[in-house]
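Shipment paperwork, digital attachment
Item: protein structure file
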Amino acid sequence: MMSMFLTALIAETRMAEISMQYSETTVDSGMSAIWLVLAAAILVGLVFAGYRVYRTHTQSLNCPKSLFVELCRAHRVNRAGTKMLQSIATASALEQPASLFLGESLFDAAVTQAKETLRFKPEQIAQLSMIRRRFFEA
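Attachment content:
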């Protein structure tokens, strides 16, 4: 009986020592859950941003303005020139701004019509003549 009591007492002490050592060496896993949620949120954000870029790109492919901008880029017209051509197309009531690129007569007619409502500075007139040369004298 005494040996049984002594064995139970020794076994209890050993279990208590083990549990104390175990509780001192445990690592709190609460931060890893936060990192997992943060990583998942970043991944969802990146997927959403990629989808938005894809949708915007595919929607703008068949747009009249994107055709106009692409033609300006192909003819190496800078941003100010592109803006000026866009305002000329708007002032001359062109349905498709890219029609400025179709021929000299259309370009000249649009510029003449736009001069009635827009005022061009001398540097803008010089830029228009340079753009006209790039379009039609190649």
